[in-house]
Amino acid sequence: MMSTARHELVLILDFGGQYTQLIARRVRELHVFCEIIPFDTPLATLAARSPKAIILSGGPASVYAASAPVCDPAVLDTGIPLLGICYGAQLMANLLGGSVEHAPSGEYGKTTVRLDKSSSLFRGLPAETSCWMSHNDRIGAIPTGFRTIASTPACPVAAMENPERRQFGIQFHPEVVHTPVGPDILRHFLFEAAGCTGDWTMSSFVDDAIQDIRLRVKDERALCALSGGVDSSVAATLVHRAIGDHLTCVFVDTGLLRTGEGDRVESLFHHRFDMPLVRIDASARFFASLRSVTEPEKKRKAIGAAFIDCFAEQARAMQGIPFLVQGTLYPDVIESGNSVASTIKSHHNVGGLPADLSFSLIEPLRLLFKDEVRDLGRALGLPEELVDRQPFPGPGLGVRILGEVTPENVNILQRADAVVERVMRSSGWYTKVWQSFAVLPNIHTVGVKGDERTYVHTIALRIVESSDGMTADWVRLPAEVLEEISHAITSELPEVNRVVYDITSKPPSTIEWE
Ligand code: GLN
User: Which of 14, 20, 135 maximizes ligand 1 atoms within 8 Å of its Cβ, making it the mutation to test the pocket?
Assistant: First the structure.
């Protein structure tokens, strides 16, 4: 749906590198729009998009392996400026007549590199700096027309260039933070070699997106399942800007949300932004479907099914609405394996809608990374406490209560959760971690409060850092902050006399307890 022809475009051919998404984020941080596409995208498809530059990503394979991923060799002959990174650089060397060999010793992690400052890539940079390496292979002979512009003791060709053809290969990773001059190198490539001007800004995105949504929806109506989280909130606000009251938001209060969530959503979106909002209090229904369910997967399924039922009933009641707004993000689009064609990936909340409800999807965030969605939220005037929110699971507090989920248990956990958020925010830690929350393990232990014996709940704290939720580590939070949380929970909640801290990473644990 989103046309990008109005922006300068850089294409990143993905050879399966660990850091490919990071390359895209770094390029966009320089205000140049880019997309990640499969390495075997045909030249014609690629050229039709008129990219200002092409970046070849890293990848796990060795270029000399039989099954190595190879792009159309003609990609190297189009005259479009090229930057190969790691595997991408090795592939350039290989396809252009140089050679790649298994290195006598690999290089992993921080490495000192010497840069030739006469290269436009390294202009103004120190002659010696540190960079991030992660390779077993290395370029042996460089192709004709190239010269070596960087080296490390174990890697004589740490970078090479052919300035006339505007082709560059770098063995190290400019996209990771451990290469401090990385952003400068990318900037030099994009702005000097490739002639980009940096026309990708949030305000231009907003204008284009609004125009696209209007063209698509015309006089029809759209529906949005608003959860109160960052993605659906930003998507709904953007679509509302475009089509006003033709958008109706549906907020399902499952009873498993944070304290005050329904009121917060209503006061912001309905009262302040004047958006049509249907608020469904479905807590009784959710609690009924969770009665005596204790097995985690069964709980998740019960909650998912109840959500679909509620949303579907509402959608039927409002019949004849052809569009459904979803807050799908770019990483989901890439992971579904196809970033060029308009793949439809349904949101976990409303995927699985019954067949009689078929919507065309509006996914206005499908080209954005999470940090860009937050910027967009700010640009649209959403409050900071919403825009900086941590991820919250679809099944809500239901998967943070072990054993049966009852209104009483949810109420205890909601109050503990509110304390955790309050202290994390006041201590400045809330935005430094990936997630911080309370869990109710449904364990009673003996305690003493005011000289009296108690036999009440334990609260577990789960506070983790992560870059994508796939792996995570527990946060070494200062003892004083942990103490403040523990003290506040045990003083404010009569139902709790003990607080414990979860010190496991993912793997072997998961972030949520269920
Ligand atoms: N597999 C190649 C090597 O080991 C490239 C690695 C990479 O792109 N990070 O050298």
Answer: 135
Ligand 1 geometric centre to CA of 37 (Å) = 19
pLDDT, tens digit (0-9, with 9 covering 90-100), for 345-395: 333 446 678 888 889 999 999 989 899 999 999 999 999 999 999 999 999
Torsion of CA 206, 211, 212, 215, to 10 degrees: 160
Q: Which domains, ranges and CATH numbers included, belong to the chain? A: 9-193 (3.40.50.880), 202-387 (3.40.50.620), 406-501 (3.30.300.10)
Q: How much is the pTM?
A: 0.84
Mapping DSSP to helix (H, G, I), strand (E, B) and coil, where does residue 458 land? strand
DSSP 256-315: -S-TTHHHHHIIIIIIIT---EEEEE-HHHHHHHHTT--SHHHHHHHHHHHHHHHHHHHH
The three-class DSSP label of residue 461 is strand
pLDDT at 254 over 90: yes
Cβ–Cβ < 8 Å for 242, 217? yes
Q: From the CA of 410, how far away is ligand 1's center (Å)?
A: 49
Pocket residue to mutate for ligand 1, from 56, 57, 62, most atoms within 8 A of Cβ: 62
Residues 253, 355 contacting (CB under 8 angstroms): no
Nearest Cα residue to atom 5 of ligand 1: 87
Q: What is the pLDDT of residues 420-431, one digit of tens each?
A: 999 999 999 999
Give the distance, in angstroms, between the CA of residue 318 and the centroid of all CA atoms in the same chain: 32
Give dist(CA 459, CA 60) in Å, integer: 43
95: CA distance to ligand 1 center in Å? 16
For the CA of 62, the nearest atom of ligand 1? 1
Q: Give the residue whose CA is nearest to atom 3 of ligand 1.
A: 135
CB 306 within 8 A of CB 289: yes
By annotation, the residues acting in catalysis are: 86, 173, 175
Rounded Cα gap, residues 161 and 138, in angstroms = 15
